[in-house]
Amino acid sequence: MLDFAIFAVTFLLALVGAVLYLYPASRQAAGIPGITPTEEKDGNLPDIVNSGSLHEFLVNLHERYGPVVSFWFGRRLVVSLGTVDVLKQHINPNKTLDPFETMLKSLLRYQSGDGSVSENHMRKKLYENGVTNSLQSNFALLLKLSEELLDKWLSYPETQHVPLSQHMLGFAMKSVTQVVMGSTFEDDQEVIHFQKNHGTVWSEIGKGFLDGSLDKSTTRKKQYEDALIQLESILKKIIKERKGRNFSQHIFIDSLVQGNLNDQQVLEDSMIFSLAGCIISAKLCTWAICFLTTSEEVQKKLYEEIDQVFGKGPITPEKIEQLRFDPDRFDDESVMKTFSSLGFSGTQECPELRFAYMVTTVLLTILVKRLHLLPVEGQVIETKYELVTSSREEAWITISKRY
């Protein structure tokens, strides 16, 4: 349960920026407790580095100043909400900006988000609608990819250890690349190539930018810049191909191309969603399955609800919406309430998290209908805190078939 508590707090504080609401730099803290910038240019980034991670920095900050605190991420003032009750009262107070996207754009040094309030609002709605439309259009694809993973796991002997983090990353990469960029990524080699460049870029975003080590290593900086250029080149090619044409498969890029955005804006928004969507989906799937393996009772209740909602019938978006799987029903401890407040649906979350919820829900429905998900005896999963919480080592599970 302690591991669950650590995860729940980390999920709120660091996974998707759900507790970080970034205000324009010109806005003053206006009575909000917190710390002043350590450096004019970098704000409190040196303090984040010295703390070891953003998660540990925020935990220490809230312990010192309370549930609502402020600090400086570069030149931008950030307000962090550190409890569920405060979070519920202040869901997305800045309607024109998504905090996680804003943070990533800052780290990638993208500039096109600095438009007027009306422009930012229009772009945000277009982004959100793109997620909704691409999920609706590609629901059958998510089912297909989930079934493929199920078949792969069913082929394993029951004693075999399954590398969960590795498989979830591969599953998320296939899902996101095809939903964002289309049928080109039905080719596994294209996905592998994308995953390699994604890994290079994301590792530097998660650490190299924050601790300043990227700029100190010409080799790493070149590798990062080359990988980013390759990712951008792929996106530019697909953006050009989709302009002014109709395809049977509606992808995320289509919604942006059809909106009133210039090519650079389409590129940046596609890049942000591709980077964040992959990593958030992979980690949410990983942690959800990890914690299901730790509680046979919760997994049983989830199976019963899935069986009640779907029975022998097909899995559809409409029936997916009927799932309210809520761990709080099965355990009164406050940590479970913390986790259940995140929910599996709704429109208040950032678009990448909403996408990850659907991907995770579809996958869990497919897997739990046919499999018991079991822990590896003696395994202790240690967490690593960067922009997204992950396991320090590979997370292993075993499976057995439901009869």
TrEMBL record:
Alphabetized UniProt keyword annotations: Heme, Iron, Metal-binding
SUPFAM superfamilies named in the record: Cytochrome P450
Pfam entry (one): p450
The UniProt record lists the keyword Metal-binding: yes
Membrane-spanning ranges: none
UniProt keyword rRNA-binding present: no
Homology family: Belongs to the cytochrome P450 family.
PANTHER family per UniProt: CYTOCHROME P450 20A1 (PTHR24280)
Name by which UniProt lists this protein: Cytochrome P450 20A1 isoform X2
Natural source organism: Galeopterus variegatus
Gene of this entry: LOC103591547
